[in-house]
């Protein structure tokens, strides 16, 4: 474990030591100034994030899954990103999974981050194989639960990624790719739900978004695999089909109904003149990538 006294996420921020003497507005400006440091810190890590995206993409192309492993805020952010993938990109809920120390999102579980045995055990309990990728998330890079999970994953040949907010952390020797956006000391010393958490959310967004784009879940910049589960999404899907194909919205709605709410199939049918069954076969043959299916028609 690294010396916690040397971790930047545990240090005192000299620019906010008088936050308890500020007016409300001054306090908020102070927080905002610190938040402005997050995006540049993430940008510096893009080469490492790109390596992680490629690792995850290659795994998923071969039938692998993505597992987030974290503790406290880091674990809960992993759950948030995993939960958002099925409705946004129409993927199986098992494709992106999340594990948090203690296993309970509704109660404080920070004390569970020291449970190395539980972290190591979850790799076999979840049936993680060499086809999968494990992303460990820990602001300090020292949570025993997360480090042990990464170590256990590597022993069975799993691709591993570490996401932390400190350089010279415990992750670097435990994973294939280490992403470390360093955002400086927190506004409130050690409160890593703030800048560290924000940077982690940005990185997780980048990982799954970039992977889903590469998997063909996006056409242009539209999420054509969206699950049409409410009225807002119905209207968005109809508008999307109409804009991409040039048909009227009533015609777009007709095709959306004919394909049982499958936006990608509806677009393919309109642009190719084919029926829904042919559309399904062509898309499956091209790994679900709409542009490739249209090119190879």
UniProtKB/TrEMBL annotation:
Keyword Transmembrane helix included in the entry's annotation: no
Catalytic reactions on record: N-acetyl-D-muramate 6-phosphate + H2O = N-acetyl-D-glucosamine 6-phosphate + (R)-lactate
Classification via Gene3D superfamilies: 1.10.8.1080, Glucose-6-phosphate isomerase like protein, domain 1
EC number(s) per entry: 4.2.1.126
GO molecular function annotations of the record: lyase activity
Signal peptide: none
UniProt KW keywords: Carbohydrate metabolism, Lyase
Residues annotated as domain SIS: 56-217
Subunit structure: Homodimer.
Further information: A lyase-type mechanism (elimination/hydration) is suggested for the cleavage of the lactyl ether bond of MurNAc 6-phosphate, with the formation of an alpha,beta-unsaturated aldehyde intermediate with (E)-stereochemistry, followed by the syn addition of water to give product.
The protein's role, per its UniProt record: Specifically catalyzes the cleavage of the D-lactyl ether substituent of MurNAc 6-phosphate, producing GlcNAc 6-phosphate and D-lactate.
Protein name: N-acetylmuramic acid 6-phosphate etherase
């Amino acid at each position: 474990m690294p010396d916690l006294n040397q971790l930047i996420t545990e240090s005192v921020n000299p620019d906010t030591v008088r936050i308890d003497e500020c007016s409300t507005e001054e306090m908020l400006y102070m927080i905002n100034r610190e938040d402005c440091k997050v995006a540049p810190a993430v940008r510096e890590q893009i080469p490492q994030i790109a390596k992680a995206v490629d690792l995850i993409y290659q795994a998923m192309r071969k039938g692998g899954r993505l597992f987030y492993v974290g503790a406290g805020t880091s674990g809960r952010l992993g759950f948030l990103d995993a939960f958002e993938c099925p409705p946004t990109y129409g993927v199986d809920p098992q494709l992106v999974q999340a594990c948090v120390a203690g296993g309970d999102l509704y109660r404080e579980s920070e004390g569970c981050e020291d449970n190395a045995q539980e972290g190591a055990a979850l790799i076999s309990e979840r049936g993680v194989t060499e086809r999968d990728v494990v992303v460990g998330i820990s602001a300090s890079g020292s949570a025993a639960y997360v480090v042990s999970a990464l170590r256990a994953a590597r022993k069975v040949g799993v691709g591993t990624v570490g996401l932390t907010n400190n350089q010279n952390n415990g992750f670097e020797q435990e994973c294939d790719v280490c992403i470390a956006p360093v955002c400086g000391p927190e506004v409130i010393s050690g409160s890593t739900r703030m800048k560290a958490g924000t940077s982690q959310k940005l990185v997780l967004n980048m990982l799954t978004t970039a992977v889903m784009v590469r998997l063909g879940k996006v056409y242009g910049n539209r999420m054509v695999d969206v699950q049409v589960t409410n009225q807002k999404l119905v209207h968005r899907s109809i508008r999307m089909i109409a804009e991409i194909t040039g048909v009227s919205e009533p015609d777009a709605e007709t095709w959306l109904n004919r394909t049982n709410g499958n936006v990608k199939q509806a677009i393919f049918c309109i642009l190719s003149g084919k029926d829904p069954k042919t559309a399904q076969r062509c898309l499956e043959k091209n790994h679900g990538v709409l542009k490739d299916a249209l090119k190879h028609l």
